[in-house]
Each structure stands twice: as structure tokens, then as C-alpha cells.
Design a protein that fits this description.
about 230 residues; alpha/beta; eight-stranded mixed sheet; 8 strands; binds iron/sulfur cluster
Length: about 230
């Protein structure tokens, strides 16, 4: 089996795994090309520059200091069973395993359910707008299959919606919330789109980006639909 390709590392974070001190590994490769991607340097498999063996040694030295390791990307499941095997090795050290995923690989996720403890799943837009945002026509349907796969495990998770005003309006956000609440999702995070230097084409203004967060009626409505709603500004 080939080696896992790791393109980045955050050694310590309190915000990437719920209520756990964690490290984040950024795996290279992603099947999507989101307009607002902030990690374009991680999108192609072959860009991994971290030695997986040395990362494992580094993690061994963090036992007792960190509680969880989050696999992010790119899309961590694009490397398939290579990722799952590495997750198993990390988990055997005693860490919880988190996964930030766009949901594009439901079958791989199904094979990873024993080793992954928690996921943050991206729900990027309505079905109609997914292709324009991600460059992929099957991304929405795959993501919904991943949601079903994970919900069947009964394990904890969060669905994340990044509100880029080019691809989400208030009606879209309400429609997404309705879909998630109907499916029984209990925890969601609504994230503000923050332009970054790779997204030179954004042409959004602060009022458009803040509209979801400044609307008390909208917030109250969505807050009432879920057990937990995090508004990440
Ligand atoms: S899914 Fe994430 S890593 Fe992949 S293109 Fe979209 S924003 Fe970038």
C-alpha cells in the first residue's frame, strides 16, 4: 500500500474537535474545486510534503497531551484505505479520530465508521447551486449519502454550512435547515464566509456576508430547529 500524503499540520487546536485538544492533519487531494477554497495548494494528490513516519513519531510524543487527531484536507477520504489504515494507527495510540469531510466518498466513509469517532460534514449549498460552487455534479448527492451513512452509526457529528453570499441566500439557508431538521440532524454550524487572498474573484461586501448573522428572526427560527446551532462569525 502506498504511503499517506500529508500536506499540512496544525499541532494544537481547541476548535476542530468538540471539547477536545486536537492536532489537525491536512491530507492532499480533493475531488471538488470550490470557488472559495482556502487550501488550493492541497487539492492535488502528490503534493504531500510531510513524512508520515515522522508525524507518527510526533504523535506518539503527544500521547497524554493531545486528546484527538482530526483528518482534514483537501478531502481526507480521497486517499481511501490508505487514510483509513493511518487513522487506525493513530487511534491505536489512544487518540479520538475526527474527520472534516465534504462527503464526496460515502462508500469510503462507510468503511471508516469503526475508526472515526466524530465528523464535521460540509453542506455547501442547495442541490441546484452545488455544481456552480464545487465544479461537481454529483457532489450534493454523494454528500447526502454520506450524511445517511454517518447518521446510521449513531455517532456524534456536526453539519457545517458556509454562507458565501454568492451561493447561499437566506431562503437557501432556511431550505437547508429544513432538510437537515427533517432528517433528524441535531447539531449544525453556520459559518461566515470570510474572503481570503486566494479568492480574488469574490466581490462580496460585508453587509452581504453578515446578512445571515444580523437577522435575529432568521437566527431564532433556525436555533429553534436544532439541539445546537453554532454561529461562527
Ligand atoms: S471541498 Fe474543501 S478542500 Fe475541497 S475544494 Fe472545496 S473547500 Fe477546497
Amino acid at each position: 500500500m502506498r504511503e499517506i500524503q500529508i500536506g499540512g499540520l496544525v499541532p494544537f487546536t481547541t476548535i476542530d474537535y468538540p471539547e477536545k485538544l486536537a492536532a489537525v492533519l491536512f491530507l492532499v487531494g480533493c475531488p471538488l474545486r470550490c470557488v472559495y477554497c482556502s487550501n488550493p495548494h492541497l487539492l492535488n494528490v502528490g503534493d504531500g510534503e510531510y513524512d508520515p513516519a515522522r508525524i507518527m513519531e510526533w504523535l506518539q510524543a503527544r500521547v497524554g497531551k493531545l486528546e484527538a487527531v482530526v483528518f482534514s484536507g483537501g478531502e481526507a477520504l480521497m486517499q481511501g484505505d490508505v487514510t483509513i489504515e493511518y487513522m487506525k494507527r493513530v487511534r491505536s495510540l489512544g487518540f479520538k479520530i475526527g474527520l472534516h469531510t465534504n462527503g464526496f466518498y460515502p462508500d469510503t466513509l462507510a468503511r471508516a465508521t469503526d475508526v472515526v469517532d466524530w465528523i464535521g460534514l460540509d453542506f455547501k449549498a442547495t442541490r441546484e447551486k452545488y455544481p456552480d460552487l464545487t465544479g461537481q455534479h454529483i457532489a450534493y448527492d454523494n454528500m447526502m449519502r454520506s450524511l445517511d451513512v454517518w447518521m446510521a452509526t449513531g455517532k456524534d457529528f456536526e453539519v457545517r454550512i458556509t454562507c458565501d453570499p454568492r451561493f447561499i441566500n437566506k431562503d437557501d439557508l432556511c431550505a437547508i435547515a429544513d432538510i437537515l431538521a427533517t432528517r433528524g440532524v441535531q447539531k449544525i454550524a453556520i459559518q461566515k464566509y470570510i474572503p481570503h487572498f486566494e479568492d480574488a474573484a469574490h466581490q462580496t461586501d460585508a453587509a452581504a456576508r453578515n446578512q445571515f448573522f444580523d437577522d435575529a428572526v432568521l437566527r431564532e427560527r433556525i436555533n429553534g430547529m436544532f439541539k445546537s446551532v453554532i454561529w461562527r462569525e
